Amino acid sequence: MMNTIKKSVVLGVFTSMILVSCGKDQPVATETTEVTTNNNGAIYEIDTLNSRIEWKGYKVVKSDQTSHFGTIKFESGDLTVHEGMLESGKFVVDMNSLTSVDLKDDAEQLAKLNGHLKSGDFFETEKFPTASFEITKVSKNDSGDYNTLLDGNLTIKGITKPVQFNANVSVKDGEASIATEPKDISREAYNVKFQMPLTNGVIKDDVSLQILIKANEKK
């Protein structure tokens, strides 16, 4: 009788563990695209003081009244340019520099939001202090307002996903610039899944990112 009870208890515990395990979110898988860029050419070092990523996040209703927006700085990076054309590039982003611009005149709310965004609820910057973007392909774009298509691997919180940006790229007199079109990125794809209580509104999965880079030829 006691053996039967013990077996039942063990089975119950084991079943509970399976149910809990099945109820957990599955880990987000990393995906990458093959790097086909050419690294032969002149090196242009990123000007970190004049380069940035601009971000914008929204609640369910996508409007300026329900959004926060701000910037993230680059830690380092470089481009390769050959015969006046962008060939490749890789950049490291300082996630601890993430800040809100719309709250810059409210120090208390700014500190509160920035701290929350850097916490485990969002980008967990203590564990993942940097993000990165590596250009995997550069293509000419003959239509629309942007002259280039940039394919790349975007890494956030240790998770890599392929992303394509429309961009305007310029190389002239030892200076290079990249200005991408704002693009919606799924934060859940990078395991950023925090949601507020429904009474406070639902945060959209999409975060808009725009990459703005200035670089100078390395002498």
Please describe what this structure looks like:
With 219 residues, this protein is of the alpha+beta class. The chain contains 2 helices and 10 strands, in the order αββββαββββββ. The chain has helices at residues 2-23, 107-117; strands spanning 42-46, 52-59, 67-82, 85-100, 130-140, 148-156, 159-172, 175-180, 183-186, 203-217.
List the helices and strands and how they pair.
Blueprint: H1 2-23, E1 42-46, E2 52-59, E3 67-82, E4 85-100, H2 107-117, E5 130-140, E6 148-156, E7 159-172, E8 175-180, E9 183-186, E10 203-217
Key terms:
alpha+beta; 219 residues; ten-stranded antiparallel sheet; disordered N terminus
- N-C termini distance: 84 Å
Let me know the average pLDDT.
83
Number of strands: 10
Radius of gyration: 22 Å
The backbone outline, from C-alpha atoms, is globular
Q: What's the story with the biggest beta sheet?
A: 10 strands, antiparallel
Sheet/helix structural class: alpha+beta
Helix content: 10-25%
Question: Proportion of β residues?
Answer: over 45%
Order of helices and strands: HEEEEHEEEEEE
- Number of alpha- plus pi-helical segments: 2
Uncertain residue segments: 1-24, 196-200
What's a concise summary of this model?
This protein is an alpha+beta fold. It has helices at residues 2-23, 107-117, and strands at 42-46, 52-59, 67-82, 85-100, 130-140, 148-156, 159-172, 175-180, 183-186, 203-217.
